[in-house]
Structures are given as structure tokens and as C-alpha cells.
Amino acid sequence: MTVLAQSRLTAPVRIEPRPFGLVRHSFALARRSVLKTMRTPEQLLDVTIQPIIFVLVYVFLLGGAIAGDTDRYLEFLVPAIMVQTVMFAGMATGVNLNADIGKGVFDRFRSLPIGRSAPLIGSVAGDLIRYVVAIVSLLAFTSLLGFRFHAGVGSVLTACLLTIFFAFCLSWVIVLIGMLMRTPGAVQGSAFMIMFPLTFGTSMIAPKDTLPGWLQSWVGVNPVAHMMEASRALMLGGPVGDHVFWVLVWSVGILAVFVPLAVGAYRRRT
Q1: pTM for the whole structure
Q2: Residue 41 has pLDDT above 80, yes or no
């Protein structure tokens, strides 16, 4: 009788798999990431203060020289700054993941009966709250300076959602860097090397036809430039052209390439 009781106590407990396990686990860890951000609001300073500084510098230092007056330049600049702000907000994803791996957080996740990729997906999805905060802060501040939409509510929401989706896809490039680098500082430095040519090699600051020929060629294929032009057209009511199409093509392509690479690197790292 005693032997039978001991064998029941020591027998391994079999956990029956439940449907959509990876989705549920990823959602739970995304919620953890959101709670972590909300309890440490200083993590949101970069997405609230930084875009305001960029707007003030560009509008009041360059606006008169480029557009003739600051009001016209504000209208030209804000949709593009929104894209830049959300992209920069995604850089924190790779830095935080790298720091969590260094602290052993993901080793503890491995001891839990959850999907191996769930912590990675949950962390990326949880950072979407940073994108929303960045957009709301930027548009609220620039509306005080005089920025106004010239399109309907549906078009403006489409511009915001398309920007968030594009930044979410691009964040997987930063996640891969976070898995490959050994320190958070190296992740940040490498991410800046990628983000700067992508964001500044565009028509964000000055119209495309004022740029040198070689730079216009780069702007023509740069996915961030398409995202900025699509954002301008949707928020200001201009022709969208094929910019939305190329944004979606680039987004799907980035997901198809970098998600498997990032998940593979994560599994090797942990």
C-alpha cells in the first residue's frame, strides 16, 4: 500500500495539450509585457518626449527654409514623423529581449509548459502599446501647434494602423539582432545603423525631387519612404498611388524572412 502511494506521488503528471496553446501563451506573455510597461511608465519617455523634440527641431529650424513657413512644413512633416517615431519605438523590443535573456528570465520560461516561441511572440506583441502611446502623444502635441487632418476619420485610422502593422513587421529585424548580439548596448548600436538609412533616406525632411539622383533611387525602393508617402496621402487626402501596395508587400516579405530567423536564433540562444 505504501509502495503504491509513493509510485502515484512520483509518477510524472501528463499535461493534456489544449487547442491554440501557442496563441494563448503568447497572449498571456504579451499581457505581462504590457503590465510591466504600465508599472514602469518611465519606459515610455522615449516614445513621448523624443517625437516632440524632433518636431520642434525640424519645424522651427528647417521649416522656414524648406517650405517657406512653419505651418506648411508642419503639415508635410507630421505624417512622416509618425512613421519614424513608431519605428524607433520598436528598437526597444530587441534591447529588452536581450536584457531578459542575460538576466535568465527566459530560462525560467523554459521550465513552464508553454510553447518555446511564446515568450518571443508575446514580448513583440506586448510592445504594440508603445506604438499606440507614441502616435497619440505625437498627434496630440502637433494638434496644439496647428496640425490638422484633411481626410476622414477612416483614412486617418487606416494610416495609423498601417504604420503600426509596418513597424510590427520591421521590429522582427530588431528581434533578430537582439538574439544575435551579446549585450543590450550592442543591440541598440546595431539597430541605429539599420534605422538611420531607412528613416533619413526618405522624403521625411525634404521633398524627393530636391534630393540628389542617387538618393532618389534609394528613396524609390526604400519601404519606409513608401510608408511615409502612404501616411501623408491617407492623413492629408492626397493620391495614395501604389505606396500602400508596396508597404504591404514589404511587410509580408519581412515577416516571411525574419520571423523564422529570429525564432531560430532564439531557440539556439536559450
Answers
A1: 0.85
A2: no
